[in-house]
Amino acid sequence: CAAVTGDMAAAEAERLCLTDLPGELLELILCCDVLGAADIGRVACTCRRLREACQPRGKVWRERFRLRWPSLLKYYSHSDSVSWLEEYKARHNAGLEAQRIVASFSKRFFSEHVPCDGFSDIETLGCPSHFFEDELMCILNMEGRKGLTWKYYAKKILYFLRQQNILKNLKEYLQRPADQQSFLEGAVLIDQYCNPLSDICLKSVQAQVDEITDKVRRVLRAKNARHPSVASKAGEILIPEVELQRQVLDAMNCVLYEQLKYKGNELDYYNSLNSYIHQVLIRRTGIPISLSVLYLTIARQLGVKLEPVNFPSHFLLRWCQGKEGSTDIFDYTYIDAFGKGKQLTVKECEYLIGHHVTEEFYGVVTSKEVLQRMVGNLLNLGKRESTDQSYQLLRDSLDLYLAMYPDNVQHLMLQARLYFHLGIWPEKVLDILQHIQALDPSQHGAVGYLVQHTLEHIERRKEEVGPEVKHRSDEKHKEVCFSIGLIMKHKRYGYNCVIYGWDPACMMGHEWIRNMNVHSLPHGPHQPFYNVLVEDGSCRYAAQENLEYNSEPREVPHPDIGRYFSEFTGTHYLANAELELRYPEDLELTCSTVQNIYSSGKE
Predict the structure, then answer these.
(1) Helix (H) or strand (E) holding 102
(2) Closest residue by Cα to residue 198 from 290, 284, 279, 95
(3) InterPro entries from the xrefs (predicted)?
(4) Is the separation of the CB atoms in 306 and 290 below 8 Å?
């Protein structure tokens, strides 16, 4: 009897199909990660029951969206009524559009810097910007050593998109009433603009500051359990008694400088990381203004109103000891956040910088003026060196400054000169110069000079023919020994590099040849010279006799590597399509050279 019952149950189970399952179990199966969107689409077409299970606003399509693009769920709330099928389609189409645009950049902009109107396609996208950005992040996070050119241009596009959004947020911030402009938020906006590819947000920075504030409360509670700051939430109270305020500041100094070991970065003062608030929190060091923003924020959350003081050469905070709002500079104690929270008198402030200053320098400044000084520090750092990294910092800080003061002639002129020097965006240079002339006609001499040379640059660019194609089979190239993509080592300086171009002889001018002492080389300028990307981020022009094969090749961490190469094989780089067009016979030689090097090495 039991056997008969078992057979009947088995037969019944065989007759069960997907539509006979309970709704929750059916959903669980359809949400399985082995099924793709196409599978769900086909299932939904089979019958009404399955179509209802796969309804556009239901759990199945939401789970499909989450599995494919998990980072995008933060843009939705559980209360939203969302057609997940439509969102899936929109994200998929945005991905295809992003891939199309990224793929086109190499062909369009290989020979020049991406022009100021080069991102016009992106600014008129018909899809949500966060969908487009998400696809760019997917490209950047591709595993392995392939897709280098795609990653290079995806990074440039993402950099542009995020900076545009941050500038918009900064302008909105500056439009608010002064009492709604958080010093911390302003510092975060500057940090984000200069580091647009880093994961920096006000919420996470504020959470770290709150964590420090809680530590201060615990220290405060141990010393005075009835202190009003112990039980209050951030910013809820303003403590009027000076002695209670002093207890807060003592507890802050204990936590920041004794427990957490924050300190002013005297050894590496001119490092730009000291100006970025998220780096200050990570490295626990900074410069006077960045540490002051942190110190002021914590104090205000604990009920102590400190105010920023734009003191020359050394940013300070002031703490009122007399009547609130007093204009007497001697009614205040001045706090040096860079100097472990040391409290100073007016005379001690002057000792700090070594000279006397007038009373106006002890006055309180606005949040906009604090940002101006932070950006000014970054501007000065950008001017200190002539490297790609410093030029980028100079460009970013000029953008920020002009977002705050769009009609500042001095900085507009600096921006025009910078673009002119870098040979980029000549059309934008003309627009800037026209704006300067309208603001200040007395600048006509400098403006006229730059206009003339910029127009000449534009005309030369129009006259340029296509890039020269270099064939190794040409008789004039017979002395060229090395090829594109080889990992080399400089015999004299020892740096590792990769070749991305070559000339049969030195093509630089007489002044460069003299300055670089090329004539002291045995073969002088009459030998092949190579364009190389160096591991320190620089681009150099090296003589053939100074280069040798690197017996232990490794990736060259240069920011422009993807502009020229699509893949690192482990022994050499493969030129991308645009570079290969210019050196059509190099790929075969590179592969055979590498094979010979390593086969002889094994022997």
Answers:
(1) helix 84-109
(2) 279
(3) F-box-like_dom_sf (IPR036047), F-box_dom (IPR001810), Hemimethylated_DNA-bd_dom (IPR011722), Hemimethylated_DNA-bd_sf (IPR036623), SirB1_N (IPR032698)
(4) no
DSSP letter (8 states) at residue 526: S
Contact predicate 370/186, CB 8 Å: yes
In 3D space, the residue among 576, 573, 577, 575 whose CA is nearest the CA of residue 488 turns out to be: 573
Structure tokens at 463: 């006259």
Enumerate residues 6+ apart whose C-beta is below 8 A from 236. 303
- Considering only the C-alpha atoms of the chain, give the largest distance between any 2 of them, rounded to a whole number of Å: 109
Q: What is the 3-state secondary structure (H, E, C) of 216-261?
A: HHHHHHHHCCCCHHHHCCCCCCCCCCHHHHHHHHHHHHHHHHHHCC
- Distance in angstroms (rounded) separating the CA atoms of residues 265 and 324: 33
426-439 and 444-463 are packed helices; what angle lies between their axes, rounded to 10 degrees? Answer: 160
Angle ∠(299,300,301) on CA atoms, nearest 5: 90
Task: Check the CA dihedral 399-401-405-411 and report its sign.
Answer: negative
Q: What is the pLDDT of residues 155-191, one digit of tens each?
A: 999 998 899 999 999 999 999 998 899 999 999 999 9
| CB burial string 311-331: b at 16+ within 10 A, e below | beebbbbbbbeeeeeeeebee
Task: Tell me how far apart the alpha carbons of residues 440 and 409 are, in angstroms, rounded to a whole number.
Answer: 7
What pLDDT is attached to residue 118? 64
**Span 311-354, pLDDT tens digits:** 999 999 999 988 888 889 999 999 999 999 999 999 999 999 98
Give CA separation, 183 vs 190, 215, 283, 555, in Å.
Answer: 11, 21, 20, 42
> Scanning the structure block, which residue is given the tokens 């920023």?
308
Neighbours of 258 (CB within 10 A): 11
Could you count the other beta carbons within 10 Å of the beta carbon of residue 543? 21
Do 333 and 304 contact (CB within 8 A), yes or no?
no
- Give the per-residue SS3 of 293-358: HHHHHHHHHCCCCCEEECCCCCCEEEEECCCCCCCCHHHEEEEECCCCCEEECHHHHHHHHCCCCC
Give the type of residue at 36. G
The pLDDT tens digits of the residues spanning 499-542 come to 999 999 999 999 999 999 999 999 999 999 999 999 998 899 99
Rounded distance, CA 530 to CA 427, Å?
A: 32
The one-letter code for the residue type at 270 is: Y
- 586, containing H or E segment: helix 586-602
Q: Which 3 state secondary structure label does DSSP give 148?
A: helix
Of 143, 303, 267, 279, the C-alpha closest to 205 is 279
Q: Which amino acid is it at 276? A: Y
User: By the 8 A CB rule, do 549 and 599 touch?
Assistant: no
User: CA angle at residue 99 from 97 to 101, to 5 degrees?
Assistant: 70
The fraction of the chain above a pLDDT of 90, given in percent, is 68
